[in-house]
Amino acid sequence: MVTGGAGFIGSAVIRRLIADGYATIINVDILTYAGNESTVAEESGYLGYRHERVDIRHAREIRELVHKYQPDAVMHLAAESHVDRSIDGPEEFISTNIHGTYNLLAATKCEIDESDALHIAEKELGFDIGPCSAQLMWRGLRSRPVWRILGYSSEPIPSQRAVLLIDANTAEVLEAVVEENPEDWDASTKQTA
Ligand SMILES: NC(=O)c1ccc[n+]([C@@H]2O[C@H](COP(=O)([O-])OP(=O)(O)OC[C@H]3O[C@@H](n4cnc5c(N)ncnc54)[C@H](O)[C@@H]3O)[C@@H](O)[C@H]2O)c1
Question: Which of 13, 70, 71, 139 is the most exposed place for a label (fewest CB within 10 A)?
Answer without folding.
Answer: 70
